[in-house]
């Protein structure tokens, strides 16, 4: 007779936290003046319209795997953990130029992590916040113990540097966090969603299927309807931010930091205004010297705030990512420790 007391309940964690944060910015700094060598624009126009002064471009061989390995090792160091304590590796990126094999197992093997669950997740510039929600829920469900989450993109390889609507917006970089169990809840519930009807506002052109059908071997590049994306982000994300606060019963007065996706400084300013953020709340401004690194943007912005003292570990921060899809995701977090690097 079969035992009726068999239970599929897992040993789960009630609460989760980001236990450590690491970042990697490629060495090569590209100024607005250098970008303007190929487009009809100016340093002044770019700074006024977007807030961007510089961005980092990876060397071609500095793929998401290369950047991710360094950021992830720094996140482990910050958490005071070693590779054998990680059982799952999750990579959020839209620029894994080798899609088969995907990035997560390649990063895991380079770090010496033994047979972890390894998968990639694609949600454009909202990728990191999607990954954080998935990682936190996997730990809470007991499906994983400690997860390495890497968010990053190598945007420069997929840009048309002669397109003045997109060439100046993007940069390269990666950030990583260890997500694990915690006595206190340090990752709040996610609020996420999408508007696929506006999907074409940020797209790859030509698509891989168009290339196959037409035998047009033109290099695919990112195309963006900037003003449409601007309107969507600036005017919808305030409402999403309020939903995130409400989901944790928190008000703007409780916040220490606001870390939105670094898409455009003017988008950030509209959201800050719409939320009526008190001046005591530190607002991420990594876009100035890093530009928009897509899935790398939020962990890199967190890293800058912690490194420069704009925020400190344990501070309550509102994260919100948004971008291609069009998709968005955000949550409240307690900021993690940073590696010494
Ligand atoms: N340099 C100089 N002039 C430019 C230019 C450039 N790089 N790009 C566009 N212009 C011109 C346009 O031709 C237009 O001229 P006109 O008024 O004579 O017609 C004018 O500047 C305004 O163009 P517009 O596209 O409306 O500018 P904008 O204020 O919307 O700024 C972006 C453009 C791209 C900075 C802005 O739309 C944006 O940031 N969008 C969101 C992008 C984003 O976040 N993408 C990623 C999402 S995750």
The hetero compounds bound to this protein are: coenzyme A
* CATH top level class name: Alpha Beta
**Order of SSEs:** EEHHEHEHEHEEEEHEHEHEHHEE
| Overall form | globular
- DSSP E strands, number: 14
Approximately how much beta-strand content do the residues carry?
15-25%
Full CATH superfamily name: Thiolase/Chalcone synthase
Largest sheet entry: 5 strands, mixed
Mean pLDDT: 94
How does the helix and strand content classify structurally? alpha/beta
Computed CA radius of gyration, to the nearest angstrom: 20 Å
Q: Count of helical segments?
A: 10
Quickly give the CATH architecture: 3-Layer(aba) Sandwich
Can you summarize this structure?
The chain is an alpha/beta fold. The protein has ten helices and 14 strands.
Q: What topology does this entry show?
A:
Blueprint: E1 16-24, E2 28-31, H1 32-35, H2 43-50, E3 54-57, H3 64-79, E4 88-92, H4 103-111, E5 117-121, H5 127-141, E6 147-154, E7 172-181, E8 191-194, E9 202-205, H6 208-214, E10 221-224, H7 226-247, E11 257-260, H8 265-275, E12 282-283, H9 287-290, H10 297-308, E13 316-323, E14 327-334
Parallel strand pairs: 4-5, 4-6, 11-12, 11-13
Antiparallel strand pairs: 1-7, 2-3, 6-7, 8-14, 9-10, 13-14
The structure holds coenzyme A.
Describe this structure in words.
Helix 3 crosses helix 4 and helix 7 (226-247) packs parallel to helix 8 (265-275). The relative contact order is 0.20. This protein has ten helices and 14 strands. The longest helix is centred in the C-terminal third of the chain and has 22 residues, at 226-247. The protein is an alpha/beta fold. The structure holds coenzyme A. Coenzyme A binds at residues 39, 41, 45, 49-50, 125, 164-165, 168-169, 202, 224, 226-227, 229-230, 263-264, 292, 323.
């Amino acid at each position: 007779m079969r035992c009726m007391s068999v239970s599929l309940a897992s040993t789960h964690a009630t609460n989760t936290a980001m236990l450590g944060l690491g970042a990697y910015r490629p060495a090569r700094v590209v100024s607005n003046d250098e970008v303007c060598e190929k487009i009809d624009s100016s340093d002044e126009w770019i700074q006024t319209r977007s807030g961007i002064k510089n961005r980092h471009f990876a060397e071609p061989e500095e793929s998401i795997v290369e950047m991710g390995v360094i950021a992830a090792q720094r996140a482990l160091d910050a958490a005071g953990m070693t590779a054998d304590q990680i059982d799952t590796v999750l990579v959020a990126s839209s620029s894994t130029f080798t899609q088969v094999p995907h990035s997560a197992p390649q990063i895991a093997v380079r770090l010496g992590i033994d047979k972890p669950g390894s998968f990639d997740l694609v949600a454009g510039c909202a990728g990191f916040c999607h990954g954080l929600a998935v990682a936190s829920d996997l730990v809470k469900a007991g499906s994983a113990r400690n997860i390495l989450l890497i968010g990053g993109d190598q945007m420069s390889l997929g840009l048309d540097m002669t397109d003045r609507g997109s060439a100046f917006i993007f940069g390269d970089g990666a950030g990583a966090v260890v997500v694990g169990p915690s006595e206190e809840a340090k990752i709040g519930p996610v609020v996420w969603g999408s508007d696929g009807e506006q999907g074409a506002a940020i797209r790859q052109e030509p698509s891989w299927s168009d290339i196959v059908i037409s035998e047009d071997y033109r290099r695919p590049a990112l195309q963006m309807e900037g003003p449409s994306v601007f309107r969507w982000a600036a005017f919808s994300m305030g409402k999403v931010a309020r939903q995130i606060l409400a989901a944790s019963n928190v008000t703007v007065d409780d916040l220490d930091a606001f870390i939105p996706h670094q898409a455009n400084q003017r988008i950030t300013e509209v959201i800050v205004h719409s939320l009526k953020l008190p001046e005591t709340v530190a607002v991420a401004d990594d876009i100035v010297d890093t530009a928009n690194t897509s899935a790398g943007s939020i962990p890199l912005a967190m890293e800058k705030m912690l490194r420069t003292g704009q925020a400190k570990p344990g501070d309550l921060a509102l994260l919100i990512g948004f971008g291609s899809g069009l998709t968005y995701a955000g949550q409240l977090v307690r900021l993690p420790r940073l590696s010494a690097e």
